[in-house]
Amino acid sequence: MKNKNSLGSVLRKIISSSKWMTLTTVIIIAGAIATALLPPLVLERIVNRLTAHQPIPLYLALIYFGLLALSGLLESGQNVMITVFGQKVTHGLRSEMCAKLQRLPAAYFARHEAGKTTSRFVNDVDVVDSLFTNGIISMFADACKVLSILAVIFYKSLGLGILMLWVTPLLFVMTRLFQKRILKAQLANRAAVGNVNNHVPETIRTIRMIRTLFRQKYMEQKYDDYIEESYHATDKSNLYDSIYSPIVIFISSCVIAVMMICAALGGQVQQFFGVTVGTAVAIIAYVNKVFDPLESIGMEIQNIQSAVAGVKRINEFLNEPEREKTDESVTGKGPIPNTKPCICFDHVSFCYDKENTVLNDLCFKVESDEAVTLVGRTGAGKSTIFRLLLGLYCPNEGRVLVDGVEASKIPDTRKRKLFGYVEQSFHSVSGTMAEQISLFDPAISQKQVEDAARLVGLHESILALPEGYNTPVEKAIFSQGQFQLLSIARAVAASPEILLLDEITASLDSDTERRILDALERACEGRTVLSISHRLHVNTRNYRIIEIGSKCL
Amino acid sequence: MSQPKQIEKVTKPDHILSYFKLELWPLLLVTVSGIFYNVGMIAGPYFEGRLAQCLFDIMNGYQTFSAMISLAVTYLAVILAVQLMRCIKRFYVRRFANDTSRNMRHMLYNSLVNMSQEELKQESLGAIMTKAVTDVDACVEGMRKFTTEIFDTGVVLASYLAMLFVYDWRLALLSGIFTPIAYFIAGQLKIRITQYNMEYKKSAGRLNSSTMDRISNSITYRVYGCEPNRDSAYETHLADYEKRAVSANLWGSAMQPIYNIISMCGAVLIIYSGSKNVLGTGWANWNIAAFTTFLSCFTKMALKSSKAANLFNAVQKAQVSWVRIKPLMKEYVEQNTDSAIDFSKPGGLTVSGLSLGWPGGPKILKGLSFSAGPGQILGVSGPVASGKSALGKALIGEVPYEGSIRVGERELSTLSGYERSRLISYMGHQPDLVSDSIEENIRLGEHGSIAPYLQAVCFGKEVSQMPQGAATSVGSGGIKLSGGQQARTALARTLYNAQHILILDDPFSAVDRGTEQKIFENLRTLAADKIVILISHRLYLFPTLDKVLFLDGGRGVFSTHDDLMEKNPTYAELYHAQMEGEMQNEE
């Protein structure tokens, strides 16, 4: 079960859904590897002819060039395919992660900062992209190159082949050593980069506080500390990175030197190395070619290294425990006798973490069309009751029933018809004023949007904006109270059965409060209303009061 | 915590050269090692040619075995030296990039943190994020590649070319004409590459804002059942991004082998005429060493010049990013903390003939006059959109005003940001918490006990019951605390940093009535020598306040509660309505 959501299985899914592309990529890479082997063989013939004082026919020169060109073209194709492939993967991965958002429990969003989760989607997935484009695939191609060249070397010179068999594992061990060090530095860096990224939106959000308390320097120093952390980690990994490839090149020179010396020894040894001048030239070309891909493997390892950290975190994200499945068969349209309570808390106990119990054995019932106000001290769990009703959390004990169905089983798609939830503060989404109300819901027509705005008395104010309902929300200068009204419009747009009003009057003066209550009065016809208030307020309807914090009412 | 490190200020931060200038030392090292390394690059082909020749000579009996030994040893020594230089060059080029990235971010943040609320509103959040992070990275990467390629391409090409000319100038000229063609094509494609990159960047920006929106509003979308349609909107952004990323990368990376092929056309000529040189029928007199060296030198040169296009690309990318960062790069702002004001002396607040409104908009309030002295608490109330919050914001310099606001001896508009912050404290609707501990959120870098302030806002006991106490992290934007806890943390922060005038805009909205009463009493003691301006739509505390400013219809009435009850019917009605509500509900 655990593997179902791992990065690996997501990748397998994406790859198997694009078989043709994968096949083309493999064929092109294989072609690129094979053609890259051929030019030195032609070169060997050319040099051998020269040492024998034979002229070089033009066709041999053309073949040499032709093979080079072909290998170049195939390499070009390889680049294109790898890019396309990498993008397919990132697209698929982001889609999969986005789908995961829906399945995450509400608690996840309370525990994890939005900036950091965004960084999973943006930075970490980019890292996985580079893992493919500049990492795994090219590394696979390079490894094939190394192996095929080694095979040719073996064929041409057994002695050198054996020498290479010694050198290559040695290089691999060294490479691993570098890998481990670099990974450590990369992990430190990525953590620091997360903080750096989070600090910018945070500054934008709190700029007023920073200015009024004159903490510009303080915030700057904080940012500098984060950058500094990232700086040192990067510097460290740069150091290893800088040493690695020069060492590899020096080793390749050593191999060439040893081979030439052995070839020059003559007799038995030369026989063993099987080297003519032409072969020597070809083999020098091959040895350089072997170490080229080995060197790029070094670079690719660096890319993979930095990706590992990102991959780990994406994996963590994909493996986050999911909320319980809702029951799609719940339509809410079933025959519900009016006598049945609409909302029922049946011996409900709930805690966010193990230490603090928020609700203890809470029981209450709300009949259809009834209006109820929940009162209680701060922290008594009034907002929690709403979260349980909305199915965002499941009770630890007992049942929360809405129309006789367990709240957490109600599918999300049903919710807007069922609940209108007015949060403590207005959460604007990036979009127009109309979209603040409709929340991009295609089922809500422009007319419904306008009706909702009229209901809360905002229609005129919105029309007065430069682009009316199409004004982007950032450009609308609305007061706190007006935004609160907007969030009520959002709640009633789909004519829900139940209205949940959390602290609705907290930031409103009595005048607006009255306007809202008047508006709600109209909206409440035939609906059940639950409202939370620290303060008790005037109301024209017969509100029943339920006190939270005392046992079973 | 490590010792705070001061990152250097960049003068003329909107000039790319300024960043190069700051890195003189690393760049000098890069230059020296880069020249040595790249000139040394020809040592490889040169010695490998000599090695082949030497083998030929030994096989034919012209040379002895010891000649090969000494040649091989020299070869290794030279390669070692060259690679050492390479090592230095690689490291310092990266150090340069690392330094520059740090400097750029430092400057970028400085200009960000010193922007006002209005300036910030004009930039959307997602765009700033992309700008600050991706652009700096891309820009620095371009600068690094540029610096690297100056040597790896420029110097190497020059030395290879020189070597080719020494061997056979006619052949060098002939075979070399293909390289400029490759360069020419690369130059032509430059514009296209820039364009595709620009579109790619824009798409990335859109994708980022939509990601941020999807995640930060997840719960809102969930309770309205709107998650599926947000996901499909996200999918559209993803598809667009994929398309643009592929075309940008296609033009950027796939062209290199093509440039290489064009450059390599010269190889045909070299093999054909070069072989004639070896056989003694060509323009120059060559041995095998000359032939192989020439060919391998040429191959390496062709490869290098094909990568020259990379240089263009990197510089292009950097330019695209730089163009976007540049307007954000402002001269380092050092807030002026000089002042002739004696901040230890409490002063009064006198407002007369005050009118205010947002720039370009109508006046929200007109003809306000009121005053308060140390120790007084002034209540401000009025119906929604009556300008309560705007008045609070005018007092912290966010809303322009006409008339006069005198703080002590000075007019508010003549105060610097620093002076204002030393005279006036403000708490708005948003708690504005930072991702740090509760303690750090209150102190914000200052030292001193926070316990009395936690007590004052009735938060002390709750905090002490948390497993980590005041060191408990509040999460991003205070997400790990409840609304009431956030508000009380913010209030404690405001009191901890309180100056002579304390403006509290609806500070008790998220706490219950009993707590509010207690906090208010503590506030009275804590702020005994201060002026407190309490903006609220709740009137039940107002009878205990020294003065009341009631805003209605753009005008203000400044009086006491009792007086207003008597003379202002709107106020009296509001008060009664609220108090009645309380009575009814408390039954």
Automatic annotation (TrEMBL), chain A:
CDD domains: ABC_6TM_TmrA_like. InterPro entries: AAA+_ATPase (IPR003593), ABC1_TM_dom (IPR011527), ABC1_TM_sf (IPR036640), ABC_transporter-like_ATP-bd (IPR003439), ABC_transporter-like_CS (IPR017871), P-loop_NTPase (IPR027417), Type_1_exporter (IPR039421). SMART domains: AAA. One of its GO terms (cellular component) is plasma membrane. It is found in: Cell membrane. It is a multi-pass membrane protein. Residues 343-548 form the ABC transporter domain. It comes from the Bacteria. The keyword Transmembrane helix applies. Keywords: ATP-binding, Membrane, Nucleotide-binding, Transmembrane, Transmembrane helix. PROSITE patterns: ABC_TM1F, ABC_TRANSPORTER_1, ABC_TRANSPORTER_2. Pfam families: ABC_membrane, ABC_tran. Its main location: membrane. Residues 23-306 form the ABC transmembrane type-1 domain. SUPFAM superfamilies: ABC transporter transmembrane region, P-loop containing nucleoside triphosphate hydrolases. The chain crosses the membrane at residues 20-43, 55-74, 149-174, 243-266, 272-291. GO terms for molecular function: ABC-type oligopeptide transporter activity; ATP binding; ATP hydrolysis activity. The keyword Transmembrane applies. PANTHER family: ATP-BINDING CASSETTE SUB-FAMILY B MEMBER 10, MITOCHONDRIAL (PTHR43394:SF1), ATP-DEPENDENT PERMEASE MDL1, MITOCHONDRIAL (PTHR43394). This is ABC transporter. The lineage of its organism: Bacteria, Bacillati, Bacillota, Clostridia, Lachnospirales.
TrEMBL record, chain B:
It is a multi-pass membrane protein. It comes from the Bacteria. It is found in: Cell membrane. Residues 349-578 form the ABC transporter domain. Residues 28-317 form the ABC transmembrane type-1 domain. Gene3D superfamilies: ABC transporter type 1, transmembrane domain, P-loop containing nucleotide triphosphate hydrolases. GO terms for molecular function: ABC-type oligopeptide transporter activity; ATP binding; ATP hydrolysis activity. SMART domains: AAA. InterPro entries: AAA+_ATPase (IPR003593), ABC1_TM_dom (IPR011527), ABC1_TM_sf (IPR036640), ABC_transporter-like_ATP-bd (IPR003439), P-loop_NTPase (IPR027417), Type_1_exporter (IPR039421). The chain crosses the membrane at residues 24-47, 67-85, 150-167, 173-193, 250-272. Keywords: ATP-binding, Membrane, Nucleotide-binding, Transmembrane, Transmembrane helix. One of its GO terms (cellular component) is plasma membrane. This is ABC transporter ATP-binding protein. The lineage of its organism: Bacteria, Bacillati, Bacillota, Clostridia, Lachnospirales.
